[in-house]
Amino acid sequence: MSKIVSTVNVNGIRAAASKGMLDWLAATEADVVCLQETRATDEQTRAALGPALEAGWVLSHAEPESKGRAGVGILSRRAPTAVRIGFGSTEFAASGRYLEADFDDVTVASVYVHSGEENTPKQDEKYRFMAEFGSYLKARTGEFVVCGDWNIAPAEADLKNWKANQKSAGFLPEERAWIAELLAAGYVDVVRALHPGVAGPYSWWSYRGRAFDNDSGWRIDYHLARGDLAGRAKQAVVERAAAYDQRWSDHAPVTVQYR
């Protein structure tokens, strides 16, 4: 089993690769890196990650059917024993929002949940995704961790300005209740478990205003693990850039070390 798993929404793989992601990949100790919002075809993603692939990283990728939207991937130090795209949904089969890979007896998955917008068709689509994906996750067994951009802050401690966002997508009661249902079904939010009772650690900051400088962020990127794997998480860090101009995405990598 891989010992260190990281997840990051790259906000466009071609842009991220040109801004510093390749340097981060060259330096990281992660064994597996889950990617979201590649916003690119398989060919474009491989081209953007060319130096990393030449250095030995193995890419599994689910390209999106809609140009410039979604797309998820998994980079690993060694080839997975099996890879599966999607979770059995007809509507979202080609959306590029879910990918999982087996590494011996452990499965690592990368998910990108819709961002949503309250009282719009976009939010309705998010709820349909949540319903189908939730059923899939609850039926899963074995050693399993699903990492990604969930676009939901589970609790008040997970976003800086929670009072002003009580009616905002990403912090709606229905969304938070869905995460609570997954936790009740046996999943563990390993970052929160390792950082109880603290604000954040945030993983996304708007590019607008001084959100990053003021650490006015949201914790919407996390690992949900089940089985013995959840109890083996021993350290979790958000790899926040040292300065605004050193960011290569509006999200930061969320990295967990498992025993």
TrEMBL record:
The keyword GTP-binding does not apply. Gene3D superfamilies: Endonuclease/exonuclease/phosphatase (3.60.10.10). PROSITE patterns: AP_NUCLEASE_F1_4. It comes from Nocardia thailandica. Its EC number is 3.1.11.2. It comes from the Bacteria. This is Exodeoxyribonuclease III. Its cofactor is Mg(2+). Residues 7-251 form the Endonuclease/exonuclease/phosphatase domain. GO terms for molecular function: double-stranded DNA 3'-5' DNA exonuclease activity. It is an enzyme of class 3 (hydrolase). Belongs to the DNA repair enzymes AP/ExoA family.
